[in-house]
Amino acid sequence: MEVVVFTLFALLALLSAIVVIAHRNPVYSTMSLVVTLVSVAALFVLLGAPFIAALQVLIYTGAIVVLFLFVIMLLNVQRESAAPGSGRGQKWGAVLAASAFAGMLGMLLWRTYAPVQTVPVGEDLVSLPALARRLFGEYMLPFQMIGLLLLAAVIGATVLARRDQSGGREDVR
Amino acid sequence: MTVPISWYLMLSGALFVLGTLGALTRRNGISIFLSIELMLNAGNLALVAYSRLLGQQTGQVVVFFVLAVAAAEAAVGLALFIAVYRHGRTIDVNRMNLMRW
């Protein structure tokens, strides 16, 4: 049963990931990314992390993807046209680099491969109170720093995307 | 029958490689960004898989932080694209030459 669910969502994730990187229209790429993210969220549930799965759906598909779509709409991004000059060399170089990386990764996984008989999902792995205690106890300082980082990101994004209101000269240009 | 953790790790590796390929081949800034999100998500999958293998929640805590950093990165990156678009009317990375002499 678990194998069937895993195979289904793994295939869905891979296929939609291929669509993400292959489709010329960025809107379709973004919608396909939603499918990938939801499939990976389902795999998170299989792995005993329901809270992370909920966060993934809320933050990624709820906030980040909407942000992407909004920017695509705002900038009126066109379909990627055929390459005007650079093209072939870059594409083959990228394929070569990606396959070399895949080979290294595959070799690593092959050497460490062991048909581990995993223990069934324990209560302490799924438990939300335990996760909260960890997050607000052991990892309190990183948690605060993440808050600070998000604040800095909000301020930075606002400053970057703001149209210059003063009418004076713009230093950025 | 339970699914071996290695399968999750292989899926994570495949997703990461696809993200790399996309980030290297696409010329549209938004598509490159989408590929980077794909790579981040593959990393998250590996972290949760190891958390399951070791039976500890530490991996899930790290994924929580990675999600927050991804959100911050997307916000700042898209704001950068808006600024660049306002300057040159394009977000094709081959036509961006702000820093070229």
Strand content of chain A: under 5%
Q: Please provide the count of β strands of chain B.
A: 0
Q: State the share of residues found in helices of chain B, binned by percent.
A: over 70%
State the distance separating the first and last CA atoms of chain A.
59 Å
Class per helix and strand makeup of chain A: mainly alpha
Rg result of chain A: 22 Å
SSE order of chain A, one letter for each helix or strand:
HHHHHHH
Low-pLDDT stretches of chain B are none
SS field, number of helical segments of chain B: 3
Mean pLDDT of chain A: 84
Number of helices of chain A: 7
Q: What are the low-pLDDT stretches of chain A, counting only 5+ consecutive residues below 50? A: none
Largest sheet of chain B: none
Mean pLDDT of chain B: 87
Which descriptor suits the 3D outline of chain A?
A: globular
Q: How would you classify the quaternary structure?
A: heterodimer
Helix/strand class of chain B: mainly alpha
Estimate the strand proportion of chain B: under 5%
Structure write-up:
- The complex is a heterodimer of chains A (173) and B (101).
- With 173 residues, chain A is mainly α.
- In chain A, 74% of the residues lie in helices and 0% in strands.
- Chain A contains 7 helices and no strands.
- Chain A starts with a helix and ends in a 12-residue tail after the last helix.
- The relative contact order of chain A is 0.06.
- The mean pLDDT of chain A is 84.
- Chain B is mainly alpha-helical.
- Chain B is 77% helix and 0% strand.
- Chain B is built from 3 helices and no strands.
- In chain B, helix 1 (5-25) runs antiparallel to helix 2 and helix 2 (29-54) packs antiparallel against helix 3.
- Chain B is elongated, with a radius of gyration of 17 Å.
- The relative contact order of chain B is 0.13.
- The mean pLDDT of chain B is 87.
- At the A-B interface, helix 1, helix 2, helix 3, helix 4 and helix 6 of A face helix 1, helix 2 and helix 3 of B.
